[in-house]
Amino acid sequence: MSRNLLELQNITKSYDGQLILDDLTLDIHENSFVTFLGPSGCGKTTTLRIIGGFEKPDKGRVLFDGKDITNLPANKRQLNTVFQKYALFPHMSIEENIAFGLRIKNKSESYIKDKIKYALKLVNLDGFEKRSIDSLSGGQQQRIAIARAIVNEPRLLLLDEPLGALDLKLRQEMQYELIRLKNELGITFIYVTHDQEEALTMSDYVVVMNQGYIQQAGSPEQIYNEPENAFVADFIGDSNIVPGVMLRDYLVRIFGAEFKCIDAGFGVNKPVDVVIRPEDVEIVDDDDPRAILHGEMTHIIFKGEIYEMECTTPDGFEWLIHSTELHEPGKKVGLYVKPSNIQIMNKPESEDEEALGVEE
Amino acid sequence: MEKLKDTLSQCYLAFIVLFMYAPIVTLVALSFNNGRSRAQWSGFTFDWYAEMWADQAIMAALRNTIIIAFVSAFIATVLGTIAAIGINNMRSVSRNTVMSITNIPMLNADIVTGISMMLCFIAFGVSLGFHTILIAHITFNLPYVILSVMPKVRQASKDTYEAALDLGATPVQAFFKVVLPELMPGVTSGFMLAFTMSLDDFIITHFTRGAGIDTISTLVYSQVRKGIKPTMYALSTVIFLTVFVVLMIGNFAPEWLKKRRK
Predict the structure, then answer these.
(1) Contact: B166, A81; criterion CB under 8 Å
(2) Which of B173, B174, B261 is the closest to A132 by Cβ?
């Protein structure tokens, strides 16, 4: 991997005695697209504001390109922010908005003019120079906010839930736009969102946060396929999280049935949590020799691409299943899961860790 | 039926306007009356305006009034805007307390404000004069400015200020280039309000002015006691028109500015 552009070291922050970030440490590589993902109140926006220079951490350091910028004010940092509510200046035209940062830095007017043209082209709004802000739609305003940030040639662009106010279709469009922009500009993006789909689609690196802690950090595939704890498994997509016992390496017992798996090193007869994604639960005939568990179909919802179904096993657990094949409620079926689709996680050990987990 | 309703509501409105403006119209008419009678029209004249213009005492009072109104409104606007921003950044409990405290002078009877200020100046050995009127006017104008700037401060998002910092502006640049323009409608109307409040104040000025200095209102008061002269009608007409124009500007300027920008 390339070198670190930004390092957060042991960042702690609290408001009114309430701990928001607890000893957070994270490296961000140059030229990567990093997403902070978590529910509201998890500390992701606070982390972004500390990087942007709008908040000071109580403890810890922020290093940018190896230099300590913890106490550097926001206006002296080589980075720019795209705010959640765009924060465009309503009394200025689009042109004046985009030129704001460059005029502050006393760039020549001809340079500014070229930059505005370039930035508007980049966000697909050529010719909008003279328009007023309130004549724009939400999506267009967001593009202007991005243009206003990137004309300053930041090395790092911070985006605070920039697509939160847009409708679904526009949001998906803008996701692709952002990926394209990042590749064209070749700068580092830090993106904050609570939308797990957005995070998985756009990022190179996802940082899942909850209650001021980093729960897991890794590539989107790692986060989705190998969640390290129940919180991550539950937050990223739907999943079946069931208690199990690791009998020995490569074998786990769930509800009395033995499943082959590909995890090892947990020890013998060790209680664990098992994550199985709904699309990985395969429905087979009741008498199929592959069936490991047996149950009865209970619910079905048509979701468009797939049917979302529930199958209740005799122990009372309702398995969430995604499939393109329809199985009517009342039908007796067998369930099978491929060994590679079973993800084993350590059970939380302390109460402190327990608190981080899923709230039932 | 509908028609009758319409006619009735129009008559109602006409009566209200009539009651409100009949006295002022009478005053304006009499200021052009060629004669001292208040009941008889003896022809049109500008004589009273000319006489008013030539009257040293009136001109001095007019000058004082305008200078005090302008300076006190300006200072109150600066202080009030700063105060509104400060109050808005407080925690909600102290914010409500401070807002109540700043609102009390507005509800207080002018005579109480006037006498207490006079006593305060005397107690601290400040000689009464132009400066004490000015201080008094700044003081009673302040709450009006805070009250009219406050809604704009609340409306303005903190984001734009931070966005300006993010783009490299110093806090001072961010304030003047981004925050103040957003507050401007509130600041302008606060200034206009303060200006007119100061312009037509009599009671507080009366108690804080000391001897040898007059504003229009105290001058009119002392002249009326000696017997009213039609120059006073002319003067009152001028004051009315000034206030009217200022209020119109205050009401329509924001709209006009908005349209021009588009």
Answers:
(1) yes
(2) B261
> What CATH number should be reported for the domain holding residue B172?
1.10.3720.10
**Cβ atoms of residues B201 and B188 within 8 Å:** no
Quick: pLDDT tens for A220-251.
Answer: 999 998 888 888 988 888 889 999 999 999 99
Boundaries of domain holding B138:
68-261
Q: Is residue B16 part of a domain?
A: no
- Residue A247 CB: number of other CB atoms within 10 A? 15
Q: What is d(CA A151, CA A338) in angstroms, rounded to the nearest whole number?
A: 50
**A224 token code pair:** 């989705």
* Domain architecture of chain A: domains with CATH: 4-225 (3.40.50.300), 239-356 (2.40.50.140)
- 3 state DSSP class of A49: helix
Q: What is the pLDDT of residues A255-308, one digit of tens each?
A: 989 999 998 888 889 999 999 999 999 999 998 899 999 999 998 999 888 999
Nearest C-alpha of chain B: how many angstroms from A130?
Answer: 10
Cα separation, B90 vs A343, in Å, equals 50
Task: Kindly report the number of other CB atoms within 10 A of residue B122's CB atom.
Answer: 13
pTM, whole model, 2 decimals? 0.77
The total number of structural domains in chain B stands at 1
Q: Is residue B8 part of a domain?
A: no
